[in-house]
Amino acid sequence: MKVIANGKKIPTHAFGELFVHGEKLADTIEFVVDRYYGGSDLGGCTFCIRGLTEDGWELNQTLLPVILDNEIHLSWRVSDNFTGRAGKLRLELRASRTGENEEELLILKYRMPPVTVAPTIAGPNGPVPETAEQAVSQINEAVAEGLEALIEEQESFDLDEVRARLDAMDAAIAVFLARPEVIPMTAAEYASSVHKENALYVIIGEDEA
To answer: What span, in angstroms and rounded, lies between the C-alpha atoms of 80 and 17?
Structure first.
């Protein structure tokens, strides 16, 4: 996606609702800014994009410039730091130089309207037990089918790769099996029942007489 600056203003409407919480390097945005501003050549500047989340976390990512005759192209492969929290995200593009004493000299700030990082879909209790059991069953079926295919073909294969895949499947099974069973009940039922291990009890209102 290419976004062209208008002087010191960079429009964000094209990607204002593009980001989703938890994404990792999913989108690349190319900013195009003027090489010359107010008589200054920005070709020797360092560029970085800064962010401020809704809850006050500051973010920073350096952008590598491609310098042309009258333009500078800046490719921003959006870091997961910028999508780590849902909500409004304020952005600012900065151009700076290193001074004689190695200090940073801020040359230019580009104004950018805030964007939104959309929340991802997530339930408070994770998937229901049936979903977890179905996932484990599918993983086991995939393992069985893979082993059967290897036996039928009787061809050489990379044992380390197979072990790595099995380890990943074991880890996925462990994640699903570790999810607690959610059991709603009244306070009276909770007091009189035998409690299960690895279960989450949710106290609900008392039954009406």
So the answer is: 16
Q: Which of 61, 13, 5, 63 is nearest to 37 (CA)?
A: 5
Residue 88, helix vs strand vs coil: strand
CA angle centred on 59, ends 16 and 1, rounded to 5°: 35
Q: How many CB atoms lie within 10 A of CB 72?
A: 22
What is the tens place of the pLDDT at every residue in 117-152? 999 887 776 666 555 566 666 666 666 666 666 666
d(CA 172, CA 145): 18
SS (H, E, C) 118-184: ECCCCCCCCCCHHHHHHHHHHHHHHHHHHHHHHHHHCCCCCHHHHHHHHHHHHHHHHHHHCCCEEEE
Q: Determine how β-strand 28-34 pairs with β-strand 2-4.
A: parallel
The residue written with tokens 């700030």 in the block is 109
| pLDDT at residue 37, rounded to an integer | 92
Instruction: Report whether 21 contacts 120 (CB < 8 A).
Output: yes
H or E stretch covering 16: none
The residues, any chain, with a CB within 8 Å of residue 13's CB and separated by 6 or more, are 113
Would you place residue 105 in the very low, low, confident or very high pLDDT band (cuts 50, 70, 90)?
Answer: confident
CA angle (144 as vertex; 142, 149 as ends), nearest 5: 95
